[in-house]
Each structure stands twice: as structure tokens, then as C-alpha cells.
Design a protein that fits this description.
Helices cover 35% and strands 32% of the residues. The chain is α/β, with parallel strands linked by helices. It has one domain: Vaccinia Virus protein VP39 (Rossmann fold, 3-Layer(aba) Sandwich), CATH 3.40.50.150. Strand 6 and strand 7 form a beta hairpin. It is globular and about 45 Å long. The relative contact order is 0.16.
């Protein structure tokens, strides 16, 4: 990664360490798109990239023998550990970068990578992270990828762009977070530029989604 990527990765980590407690409290329920994706799938090993407080890892635990949650924020990993302990589901947690996954090749049968890709600072890093997902997916494995989109009604633009989106803590303090807001065409282009093979690409609730598998099966 470039120096800029490194600085921005630290920025994302420090931001989410700072807001982790409040963020986790507002992220109780899984997304319906994730529930739909997982409804008829299972695996020996599942992966949640950008697992945050573990709300989607909890769903994966119902579908896989082993679930690994990866996040750049230690404080969010602590929130995920607390959730797993409280709700009695097994979860292995690792601090790591989505653009350099600490996971062996072709070992994952099922993965979710939601609301994380858009935090990576450059197109190079974002495509590299999709390549990493392809690397760790095993034969027959599938993943769901999502990112914020210009299709959301909060944005009045058609082309993808970089921005900062404030998180407001109790008491009114705001913490800026880096986002790359994808246009649907740009999202499809990045998926196509990676080693992933898209089975389905769609927009739902203002987010871009792709159901993908590894290129080499």
C-alpha cells in the first residue's frame, strides 16, 4: 500500500476505535440482504470482513462450523467478542486489513464483506481487497460484497466520489469518517477488474451489492 493508504488505514482504525461503543449500540440487527444471501448457504469455514460488532458473524455462526471475524479496529473486535460471549456463539477474531487478509488461500466457503469496501482510500486498495477475497474463497465458495452508492437518496450525484461522513457521538461531538461513494457502474467495474466472478450485481436500499465467487474453481 502507498503511504497515503497507510495513513488513511490508520485514520479508519483510530476513528472506529473512538466510536466503537456507540457504533455497536446502533448496529443491533443484521441487514436483510445478508439474511437473504445466507438463507440457503452453509460452509465449514465462514469469514466476516469488517465484522464490526459481530452482528453478521452471528448469522454466519448458524451456517458454518468455524467463523472468523476480521476488523481493523481493536475496539470493535472487543465489541464483537462481547456479543459472541453474551449470545453464546463461536467466533474467532483477528485484527487485520481488508486489503491484506490474514487468511490462508482457498480456505473460506462463505463470506460477507459489507459496509467496509467503501472505507478503503484508493481504487487500487479497493480492487486489491476484492482480489484478496477471491484468494481466500475456496472452490464452490460464495461471498456477498456491499458498498454505499450514489443511488442512495442522501446523495445527489451520479458519479462516484470521495467524501467524509460524520458520526455524531452522544453529547454532539462529530467524528468524520472517510467514504468512497460508488456509482453502480463503478462498483460493477471494480468487481469486474478483480479476480472475483460476479453471479449477481444489484442495488438495494441505496447500497451496491455483488454475490461473487472466486475466479478459479
Amino acid at each position: 500500500m502507498t503511504d497515503r493508504d497507510g495513513r488513511d488505514a490508520r485514520d479508519v482504525r483510530e476513528t472506529y476505535d473512538r466510536i466503537a461503543d456507540h457504533f455497536a449500540k446502533t448496529r443491533e440487527y443484521p441487514w436483510p440482504e445478508v439474511e437473504s444471501f445466507l438463507a440457503d448457504r452453509d460452509a465449514d469455514v465462514a469469514l466476516d470482513v469488517g465484522c464490526a460488532n459481530g452482528r453478521h458473524a452471528e448469522l454466519l455462526a448458524e451456517r458454518a462450523g468455524t467463523v472468523v471475524g476480521i476488523d481493523v479496529s481493536r475496539e470493535l473486535l472487543a465489541e464483537a467478542r462481547a456479543r459472541a460471549t453474551e449470545r453464546a456463539f463461536d467466533l474467532e477474531l483477528v485484527q487485520g486489513d481488508a486489503a491484506a487478509l490474514p487468511v490462508a488461500d482457498a480456505t473460506v466457503g462463505l463470506a460477507v464483506y459489507v459496509a467496509t469496501l467503501h472505507h478503503l482510500p484508493t481504487r487500487e486498495a479497493r480492487v486489491a481487497s476484492l482480489d484478496e477475497l477471491a484468494r481466500v474463497l475456496g472452490p464452490g465458495g460464495a461471498a456477498l460484497v456491499s458498498a454505499w452508492s450514489t443511488a442512495h437518496d442522501r446523495f445527489d450525484r451520479e458519479e462516484g466520489f470521495d467524501t467524509r461522513v460524520d458520526w455524531t457521538l452522544p453529547g454532539g461531538e462529530t467524528v468524520p469518517r472517510f467514504y468512497h461513494i460508488y456509482s453502480p457502474d463503478e462498483f460493477r467495474a471494480d468487481v469486474d477488474a478483480s479476480a472475483l466472478v460476479p453471479a449477481e450485481v444489484f442495488v438495494s436500499s441505496g447500497n451496491c451489492y455483488a454475490v461473487v465467487r472466486a475466479e478459479k474453481q
